[in-house]
Amino acid sequence: APDDIYEARHSCCKKFFGPRPPRYVSIYRDQVKREAQMNKPPAPQHYLIKHSKEPVLSSVKPFSYPTDLQRKPPVPPNQKRTKVPPTPADYVKSNIISMLSDTRNGDKKLLDDSGLIRKYVYKSDYGKTPKYLMDYKMLEEQAIRAEEEKFRLKREEQEVAAQKAKEELAATIKALREKWTDLNTKYQCMSISLDNLSKQRYKVHLELEMDQVEEDIRHLINKV
Predict the structure, then answer these.
(1) Of the candidates 213, 207, 208, the residue with the CA atom closest to the CA atom of residue 188
(2) Is the pTM value of this prediction over 0.70?
(3) Which of 29, 60, 181, 194 has the fewest CB atoms in 10 Å of its CB?
């Protein structure tokens, strides 16, 4: 029978593996049961009210400074009020006169700013050249004078340089002429007979040097 087979199998397993160990039971089982009981949702008739679990704050006390008790009492108001005497001026009439209706719709505009009253012609600077134009003109004149002065100084420097160059040129020509005179004197003092080679060479040297000095003088005179 099937029951006998299962019993035989169970007896064989028990004999081979030994008795079954006890089932594991957690040591926190009772604590978990208590927490589950405590956290159990309330019944429908005991529903949760809004803001019921929020902490209740203490009542708000009015703020006051520590020195409020030391302050002096406020100054009592002035009971005597000065009465302003009525003025005989009619402001309604003056406002009507000072206003101008300038459109067909009756738009109001101050008569003082309408352009119908002459007030700019009575100013002290009316009809005069503005100050900024005078300043601009003065700056322009100063720039022109500075440019003229610069040109004059440059021209004077050029004239001085030209005069100095002319004087140096004249002095150079004078020195060359003196040199030519000295060479000519030496040339004329030579003996007539050229009986040796040194005299011939000296004569040729003087002639070449005199020709070179004459060429330099002619070149410098053409520059003047």
Answers:
(1) 207
(2) no
(3) 60
Provide the pLDDT for residue 107. 65
Is there a domain that residue 169 lies in?
yes
pLDDT of residue 1: 44
Q: Which domain holds residue 194?
A: 156-223
Residue with tokens 């005989």: 88
Q: How far apart are CA 185 and CA 183, in angstroms?
A: 5
Residues 6+ apart with CB under 8 A from 99: 108, 109, 110, 111
Number of separate domains in the chain: 1
Please give the span between the terminal C-alpha atoms of the chain, in angstroms, as a whole number: 159
174-214 residue pLDDT tens: 899 898 999 888 888 887 777 788 888 888 888 889 899 89
Residue 183: count other Cβ atoms within 10 Å of its Cβ. 19
Angle between helices 197-223 and 131-188 (to 10 degrees): 160
The residues pairing with 174 across neighbouring beta strands, listed in sequence order, are: none
Tokens of 142: 């100063």
Has residue 6 been placed in a domain?
Answer: no
